Amino acid sequence: MALVSAEGLQEAAVTSFVGRRTELGEIRRGLSASRMLTLTGVGGVGKTRLAMRAAWEMRRSFPDGVYWAELASLDDGRLLPQSVATAMAIRDQFTTWTADTLADRLRERRALLVLDNFEHLLDSCAKLVATLLTRCPGLRILGTSREPLRTQGERVLPVLALGVPPDDMRCPAQELRRFEAIRLFEDRAAAAVPHFEVDDRNGPAVARLCRRLDGIPLAVELAAASLRVLSPDDLLRRLDDRFRVLISGNRGSLPRHQTLRASIDWSFALCTEHERALWARMSIFAASCDVAAVEAVCADAALPQGDILTALTGLVDKSIVIRDARETGACYRLLETIRQYGREVLHTAGQEQELRKRHRDWYVKFAEETRRRWFGPAQLDLAQQARLNDANVRAALDFCLAVSDESHQGLRLADAYRDLWRVGGLTSEGRSWFARLLDNDVEPSVPRIRALASASYLALMQNDLATAKGILEESRKLAEDFGQEQSATLYQVCEAVAAMQKHDFSNAIVLLEEFVARHQDSDELDWLASALLNLGICHSVLGDGERAMANWTKMRDLCVHHGETWRRTWALWGLGFAAWREGDWDRAEAFELQCMDAQRVFDDTTCAANCLETMSWIAASTERSEQAAQLAGAAHTLRRDRSGPLSQFPFLTEYQDRTQAQVRQSLGEERYARAFKKGTHLTFDQVTTQLLGEPAARRKSDREGTAEHLLTKREQEVADLVAQGMSNKQIAETLVISQHTAETHVEHILTKLGFTSRSQIAALVAQGKK
């Protein structure tokens, strides 16, 4: 499943859009008359491009957004609700996604959802669509498929091939351009051969080519790309030969699927031996992949790694492989019809199983390397890379389940991917994979111990205490068998969270403190940070603000030391919450503002919603009632649309209820309602800029509080010396410490304050002395 936002629809269509004005009008009218419209037609006829263009043109008609779910790579219909939730930017870690829970979240939205390539998920898709259309009156659905859903209320629009000149038509080039297939060929040919245009000399051959290809857009585009090496007349002769072989001389009206197959066969024949091999082997990827993945999975003695790049360049030149520019680097993909053809070639050659194994091994390696680097400064880039690889990770996990002796590899992959599923809002999907993998591989092992801990943790994130309890029982038993293995005690964190959900905070503290003592010098940094987070929550709920603050400070410092971002935002939230509980409101606000600044870089909507609510409580405590109501409104929208309820920390609900009652009393119901409603229309970024002000424009006390309360005494000394213009070497000499230690202090200061330069530290110190 791939996500394309409304803003990305135009960017995703990397080539110009030709023709289809009539169909675009029919789509608009169809979605006005019916809430479900399905575009049907043969592969390669242009359903996806047409849907993408229509969604872009209609985006202003849907105030709550246009969302795109590409389903070609999704093989398991059980993951469809989760995939649609992700496509609609709902990153709720705490909801188990079903058709009903998805409908609950979308019932107030006026939005357009595009379901692209769902023909292999007809039953699952029909059930989901029926539920959404029944319970979400503002939702419209546009689908593309080779066959319709045949569900109640569905309207079907067959997408036909582009118009071509009649057989007997002889006319000037200008007249030929009236036909959409001719215009498409000319547009794509000009991209392959600069300055190419249809003229009176090549016009007859181009017209006949488009007729032979039945005006199927994909076939026309493949032909046009071949102009790099062949003239239109050469193309026509070769294509005619291909059709003669396939249909024994019947050159009359060709079935559309046979026409498309002929054109792809012909394009395949035009490739070099290495290009054909790479085409087939790249079909093993379920979605985009980078060059490193292509080289690792596709290279062998028959296709040496040194020849991969040349073959890949040739396939890009021939428009077989699509090159996408990403922030993380260039990625490559096959159109679905092209990928299916390559998969057939791979299967016929008897290479499919071996390539699936290589593909699986690469993504196990990718996941474990990502996990190794996850608790560090590359976290944001790693999260972005992971989202691009979701479909390939699914394919790798499917292979692990399909082959009896490969499930242990799946357990390794899933455990490494746990945090990536959480950060991406795919907790339900992660739980589904863990359940299937654990059922499939029951042998005691270290990977199983780790997978059990991760599976129980994800279950607890969704308050599924019953499932977590069963998993934890096995975890305790295995821990006895692997007592010397550090991974054996990971379950203690989960047992503590389970105790917290039963309000047994004292027992949770015992488990967590034992875990922290054992693992404070281990490599289990993610589990250690989670233990410290939950320790802080337990102590705060029990009224021990000093210990709560100590654990969250330790967690923050651990994250800062390693350059970690995601959990650091949770530590900052916790520090602000603890300071608010202690009545230290300036300090609380300084922490929460730091958290919000970090969230603008690392978008964890659940932490962001917690932060907004805590800021609302702080505003209420400092008699800024209108701001408190607006912040509560902004948090409400974020939870409703993207994050989910306060279910992870249900004991926080009492603070929300109490402070909002206080604000209501202060403002009166009418003023409260107006302020709350105003807040519901603010995005998270707007809250930080419009309501609270940019960081540099905030109250002086906030800035002073940030430095005073976030920096240690030594770090404040270092900050003063930075403000004096000293280098790290000079700071080290002044304080009689090593230069490395001085560098570390400066990096910690920058990270804690959310700064990027030493000049910002100097400016903050100067402001504090005014």
UniProtKB/TrEMBL annotation:
<dbReference type="Pfam" id="PF25872">
    <property type="entry name" value="HTH_77"/>
</dbReference>
<dbReference type="InterPro" id="IPR002182">
    <property type="entry name" value="NB-ARC"/>
</dbReference>
<dbReference type="Pfam" id="PF00931">
    <property type="entry name" value="NB-ARC"/>
</dbReference>
<dbReference type="Pfam" id="PF00196">
    <property type="entry name" value="GerE"/>
</dbReference>
<dbReference type="InterPro" id="IPR036388">
    <property type="entry name" value="WH-like_DNA-bd_sf"/>
</dbReference>
<dbReference type="InterPro" id="IPR011990">
    <property type="entry name" value="TPR-like_helical_dom_sf"/>
</dbReference>
<dbReference type="InterPro" id="IPR000792">
    <property type="entry name" value="Tscrpt_reg_LuxR_C"/>
</dbReference>
<dbReference type="GO" id="GO:0003677">
    <property type="term" value="F:DNA binding"/>
</dbReference>
<dbReference type="GO" id="GO:0006355">
    <property type="term" value="P:regulation of DNA-templated transcription"/>
</dbReference>
<dbReference type="GO" id="GO:0043531">
    <property type="term" value="F:ADP binding"/>
</dbReference>
<dbReference type="InterPro" id="IPR058852">
    <property type="entry name" value="HTH_77"/>
</dbReference>
<dbReference type="InterPro" id="IPR016032">
    <property type="entry name" value="Sig_transdc_resp-reg_C-effctor"/>
</dbReference>
<protein>
    <submittedName>
        <fullName>ATPase</fullName>
    </submittedName>
</protein>
<feature type="domain" description="HTH luxR-type">
    <location>
        <begin position="704"/>
        <end position="769"/>
    </location>
</feature>
<dbReference type="InterPro" id="IPR027417">
    <property type="entry name" value="P-loop_NTPase"/>
</dbReference>
